[in-house]
Specification:
Layout lengths: L28 H6 L5 H17 L4 H14 L4 H13 L3 H15 L5 H10 L3 H8 L9 H17 L3 H7 L14 H14 L3 H14 L7 H9 L23 H5 L12 H10 L9 H4 L37 H4 L2 H4 L6
Helix pairs in contact: 2-3, 3-4, 4-5, 5-6, 6-7, 6-8, 7-8, 8-9, 8-10, 9-10, 10-11, 11-12
């Protein structure tokens, strides 16, 4: 008699834990409505994992991915579940999986809201031509303004991938590319435009748009101020205080940002140490020379653009800004977040 053996099954994945404070009610009503076809225990289980995926996608994408995967194993035929899986895979730079999941979600829901993410996945897979093809579909014209801008950013990146630097600049242009605009996407658009100009060797224009970005970027989300320094080829060196030895040394005090902002008082301000001391003697102690904040004892003068103390620049160091960045866009939190990621708990 042949010995019998029990069938073997692959080990089940360990499902991530759900904190006690997470409840299905934390998921918006419209998303929970998609889960009504499942039993209540299954729907609650999936809802809690989707809530956790939304909480973690920005700070810990891999943990968010695990929660989304747990939800997908239970309810793989729900559009919102596949959408969450796709966005979490995208945050983890799993381009092929993200693209497959978002395609599945699109087939189920008929929504093209994540077209920019899908196009960026094509870039991540080394297929910029397919990214451009997605952007040229009729569905692209139906996107809301935020999603449309994100698609323009991806198109610009795809053009740069193909070496079409001037076309990348043109693809970002539009009526919302106006320095005075303060749309939710303005900072990202300004920054991308400046970066595209720099890649196309249009440094003067790039510097201007990095400056526009720095002014608009009140939350310090970008490194626009640092990019301006790189274009200028200046690295802040040793701070030199008035009163140092070697009175013949020509120490230059500069502050270009005010001139850039249109301040006639400081435009072209440049003083040698001897000129500064002469001006000091000509002004009574209780009268402040117009340029005193630029140099005197390294005063705490606040740069309206960078918010830093004015420094005394000695020997400028020229820095190579390096090659242009043509890696996938990695969309911001607003695009990585699903509707049920963004909304707060409902009260029903």
């Amino acid at each position: 008699m042949r010995p019998t053996s029990s069938p073997t099954f692959p080990p089940q994945p360990v499902e991530p834990e759900i904190p006690e404070d997470v409840t299905p009610a934390d998921l918006p009503r419209e998303v929970r409505a998609e889960l009504r076809s499942a039993s209540k225990p299954t729907a609650d289980f999936v809802a809690c994992h989707l809530v956790m995926a939304g909480r973690l996608i920005d700070e810990d994408p891999r943990a968010a991915y695990a929660h989304a995967d747990a939800a997908r194993r239970r309810l793989p035929r729900i559009a919102g579940v596949r959408e969450a899986m796709g966005l979490c895979a995208y945050a983890c730079e799993e381009w092929a999986e993200a693209l497959a999941e978002l395609r599945a979600a699109r087939r189920m829901s008929g929504s093209y809201e994540h077209l920019a993410v899908m196009a960026d996945c094509e870039r991540g897979l080394g297929r910029p031509e397919r990214a451009l093809a997605l952007a040229a579909t009729p569905e692209a014209a139906t996107l809301d303004p935020m999603a449309a801008v994100e698609l323009r950013l991806v198109v610009a990146g795809a053009r740069r991938d193909l070496g079409q630097l001037d076309a990348a600049v043109v693809s970002l242009q539009g009526p919302d590319l106006e320095a005075s605009r303060r749309d939710p996407w303005s900072v990202r658009l300004f920054y991308a435009y400046a970066d595209a100009l720099l890649a196309a060797d249009r440094e003067d224009e790039a510097r201007e748009w990095f400056l526009h970005t720095a002014v608009a970027d009140v939350d310090d989300e970008t490194d626009a101020a640092e990019r301006i320094d790189l274009i200028d080829g200046i690295e802040i060196g040793e701070i030199v205080e008035v009163g140092d030895t070697d009175p013949t040394a020509d120490i230059v005090f500069e502050h270009e940002s005010l001139a850039d902002l249109g301040s006639s008082d400081f435009e072209g301000a440049e003083f040698t140490k001897s000129e500064f001391e002469k001006s000091e003697s000509e002004n009574p102690q209780d009268e402040k020379p117009e340029y005193e904040g630029l140099a005197a004892e390294n005063a705490d003068f606040k740069d309206p653009v960078e918010g830093t103390r004015t420094q005394l620049v000695t020997a400028p160091v020229f820095v190579d800004p390096g090659p242009a960045i043509v890696t996938p866009v990695i969309l911001p939190e607003a695009q990585l977040s699903l509707q049920f990621f963004e909304a707060g708990p409902s009260t029903d």
